[in-house]
């Protein structure tokens, strides 16, 4: 009888096990598998069963269905930490841009429990939300909260945004946020720019709630500006200091649009905080214009001086029309909410931010009735086209890392589910984007923001193809909730 060495014995025992696993539910065959965690970059077959990646193999696997990925990249599905549009219209645009998880973390939602229940079984992508400090303020002022449609983003400017809070109201906010975290929130969403009445002490008390659970805060910082009070540097310093004194994990949203001309000093501050052991991360989107609500507290008196822009630097999302003082005053005073595009950064500044190694990608996306910002439909394809293929300032592997692994690692402080996202490895969730690296491209523009991206042949959410042969599949809803720990 021939004796087998330990390695040969192990291989002999593993072979029947592998054979027994086949055929898989689905096999992605012969694609260029790129996994930013392990560094894998080579032609492989990927076997999927029960919504998870079961086998990654250099040999050919068999499956009940086989997707031909020859000549295509097989990457982890992209994770958008900052997607406001939480409805079917936005979901369809996200999956055509390679996104498999889209989360409302910056501001959060008025009520997490009803929001998650409403989305369950009706989402193309995985979803989740933070507990909202701005909406906790509204509740503390005794005002009614809007229904959990996923479309109400910001409270309008008024007493609940502009007034200072008493100790009793701050306590009420803390209790509400604790309740929202218990309901499954992925940390605490903070929009300090939109709640100018919130003092530094109030924000420290809010940070303490997140620190109790060890979950992140996702703040839109207090101001984007060049001069103090109200500079970008001052505002980044505020949230880093609050994280330092409370121990809360911190993720600063859209550093590009908040940093403006001070963005590189802001990034150096984040580097310094991380070098000294603080858990601080950040993100950006690849566009020079931002978008927000004209009726919010962002446009309280003094906004032109703080941001060094004028009325003509604002455009109505609905029509593309630039504003004047007269139209600004009229629309600002109206009861209807108005979305505007805001001129912020030149392309060369945005390009430098995107290639920074600490910056992950998030869209800040929202469209309604086809109107909105092109970042909703095009952020991730724009990274692959502009920065990888055209400018060649970001490698393909680094781009995939910025759009999948880095966001997944940031989520790990909020939910154990983060460990199964952002990777092509055995045991990971089968959230996968399969695309042509030479053809993938954003098509959305400021004039036509809802034009879907092209170049994604297959996108899988939980092992189910939501984009199949380049087309969105109707009538399936594999998206699942990410819930806080």
Task: Give a topology summary.
Blueprint: H1 6-21, E1 24-34, E2 41-49, E3 52-57, E4 63-68, E5 73-76, E6 78-80, H2 88-95, E7 99-109, H3 112-119, E8 126-132, H4 133-140, H5 159-162, H6 167-182, E9 188-191, H7 200-213, E10 217-220, H8 232-246, E11 250-252, H9 255-259, H10 263-275, E12 280-284, E13 289-293, H11 303-307, E14 314-316, H12 325-333, E15 339-343, H13 347-354, E16 359-361, E17 367-368, E18 371-372, H14 375-390, H15 396-411, E19 432-435, E20 456-461, E21 464-468, E22 471-472
Helix pairs in contact: 4-6, 6-7, 7-8, 8-10
Question: What's this, in brief?
Answer:
Helices cover about 35% and strands about 25% of the residues. The protein has about 475 residues and is an alpha/beta fold. Strand 20 and strand 21 (about 465-470) form a beta hairpin.
Task: Quickly list its features.
485 residues, alpha/beta, nine-stranded mixed sheet, five-stranded parallel sheet, 15 helices, 22 strands, disordered N terminus
């Amino acid at each position: 009888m021939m004796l087998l060495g330990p390695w040969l014995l192990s291989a002999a025992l593993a072979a029947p096990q592998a054979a027994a696993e086949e055929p898989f539910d689905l096999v992605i065959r012969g694609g260029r598998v790129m996994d930013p965690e392990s560094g894998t970059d080579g032609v492989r077959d990927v076997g999927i069963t029960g919504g998870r990646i079961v086998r990654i193999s250099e040999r050919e696997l068999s499956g009940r269905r086989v997707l031909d990925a020859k000549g295509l990249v097989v990457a982890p599905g992209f994770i958008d930490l900052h997607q406001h549009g939480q409805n079917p219209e936005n979901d369809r645009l996200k999956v055509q841009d390679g996104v498999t998880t889209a989360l409302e973390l910056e501001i959060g939602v008025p009520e997490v429990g009803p929001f998650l229940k409403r989305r369950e079984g009706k989402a193309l992508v995985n979803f989740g939300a933070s507990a909202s400090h701005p909406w906790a303020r509204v509740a503390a002022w005794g005002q009614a909260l809007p229904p959990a449609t996923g479309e109400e983003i910001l409270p309008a400017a008024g007493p609940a945004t502009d007034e200072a809070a008493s100790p009793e109201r701050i306590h009420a906010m803390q209790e509400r946020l604790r309740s929202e975290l218990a309901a499954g929130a992925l940390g605490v969403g903070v929009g300090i720019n939109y709640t100018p009445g919130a003092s530094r002490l109030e924000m420290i008390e809010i940070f303490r709630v997140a620190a109790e659970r060890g979950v992140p805060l996702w703040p839109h910082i207090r101001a984007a500006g060049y001069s103090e009070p109200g500079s970008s540097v001052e505002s980044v310093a505020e949230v880093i200091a609050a994280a330092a004194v409370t121990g809360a994990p911190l993720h600063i949203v859209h550093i590009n649009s908040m940093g403006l001309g001070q963005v590189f000093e802001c990034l150096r501050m984040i580097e310094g905080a991380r070098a000294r052991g603080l858990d601080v991360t950040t993100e950006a989107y690849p566009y020079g214009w931002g978008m927000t609500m004209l009726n919010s507290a962002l446009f309280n008196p003094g906004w032109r001086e703080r941001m060094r822009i004028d009325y003509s630097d604002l455009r109505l999302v609905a029509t593309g029309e630039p504003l004047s003082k007269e139209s600004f005053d009229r629309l600002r005073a109206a009861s209807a909410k108005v979305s505007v595009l805001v001129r912020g950064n030149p392309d060369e500044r945005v390009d430098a931010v995107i290639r920074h190694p600490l910056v992950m990608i998030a869209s800040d996306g929202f469209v309604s009735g086809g109107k909105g910002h092109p970042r909703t439909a095009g952020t991730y394809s724009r990274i692959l086209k502009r920065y990888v293929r055209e400018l060649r300032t970001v490698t393909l592997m680094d781009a995939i890392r910025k759009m999948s692994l880095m966001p997944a690692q940031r989520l790990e402080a909020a939910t154990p589910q983060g460990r199964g996202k952002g990777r092509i490895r055995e045991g990971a969730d089968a959230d996968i984007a399969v695309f042509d690296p030479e053809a993938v491209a954003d098509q959305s523009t400021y004039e036509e923001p809802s034009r879907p991206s092209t170049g994604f042949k297959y996108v899988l959410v939980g092992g189910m193809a939501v984009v199949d042969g380049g087309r969105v599949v109707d009538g399936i809803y594999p998206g699942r909730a990410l819930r806080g720990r």
